[in-house]
Amino acid sequence: MDPRAAHIVADMSLEERAGQCILVGVVPSDSPEYIANLIDSKCLAGIFILGHWTKRSKLEAMLDAVNSVSPHGIKPIVASDHEGGEVQNIRIPGVDRLPSQEALARMSPAKAQSVVTRGARQLADLGVHMIFSPVADVIDPELGVKNKPIAKHHRGFGTDPQTCGRYAASVIAGHRKAGIIPTAKHFPGIGRIIEDTDFKADGITDHKTIRHDPYLESFRMAFNAGSEAVMIASATYSKIDPGTLALFSSKVMTDMLRGDFGYQGLIVSDDLGSSVSVFSVDGGRRASRFVSAGGDLAITADPGLAGPMIQALTSMAASSSGKKRLSDAARHVINVKLAHSLTR
Fold first, then answer.
1. What span, in angstroms and rounded, lies between the C-alpha atoms of 66 and 184?
2. pLDDT tens string 172-229
3. GO biological process: any one (predicted)?
4. Are 49 and 81 in contact (CB under 8 A)?
5. Pick the CATH number of 1-338 from 3.30.1950.10, 3.40.50.970, 1.10.260.40, 3.20.20.300
6. Where on the phi/psi map is residue 230: left (φ > 0), alpha (ψ -120 to 50), or beta?
7. Tell me: the pLDDT tens digits for 217-261?
8. Does this model's pTM top 0.90?
């Protein structure tokens, strides 16, 4: 942890600390001025690119507006889903269409890294700082394409933890070479569930994975390769914390990730805005439950939830333990921003 992070957070109000723990989604139809004002007025962490952006002018207008603000002297993060294959939101001329991760795994790790580095540099030149990739989930061979979130859409590197870890490490090396923040996802893995958490609240329980599961080795290899961020799944793990989504679970984020793995990087949520899996929880409380359980950066596809989320996070800080946890989460965000020259 950069010691400057603590000093920066100490100078912020509780509302500003809460804002730094929220990343909002933007789509091509969003007003750049509205998004920039939202970031500036609420001291938000930044944006992530949603939908399919095919017009360079629209993307540049959004990025110019977002990069024109720096609340409290802190620049916003610009993130994007950019796995390749079906999951690539920036599709403008001059940005390569990347192969799926399934296709990358048919290349040598060195070739896969080269392909990823080229694509990541193209995004870095546009002003993107963070990519939600690689997918380190190991696909259950008994499910195959019945695993809708990963296998069905060719998003995984395979069914072997070592292979998945090796290729995840190659992708991370490619991102880091381009100066991009990589994000290993979706801890502790969604390769053993049937339904997609974005669209279903049933069929998203993993009944196999245990706390010290061999399938988790792919994530350990990703962390060892220098993944600066990790995204938490919005699935449930009956043998780890039954009845609790992983992104609301202290057993997953605090006990396993920080404890068992010794992970010190940024912990990011899967979508808390439009994912059906979280609809049973009040919009604002999704962020406070995530952060109180050990998460750092709550992402929401719905920018309209930024206000309620900040309110819930500041209410959480009414207790000394809640205030400490909020400050710790904000420090993790600022720490990454310091490493990528996104703060004064």
1. 25
2. 999 999 999 999 999 999 999 999 999 999 999 999 999 999 999 999 999 999 999 9
3. peptidoglycan turnover
4. yes
5. 3.20.20.300
6. beta
7. 999 999 999 999 999 999 999 999 999 999 999 999 999 999 999
8. yes
How many Å apart are CA 343 and CA 74, to the nearest integer? 4
**What residue ranges do the domains of the chain occupy?**
1-338
Does pLDDT of 344 surpass 80? no
CA 58 to chain centre: 24
- What the block records as the tokens of 197 is 């958490």
Q: Work out the end-to-end distance of the chain between its first and last CA atoms, rounded to an integer number of angstroms.
A: 16
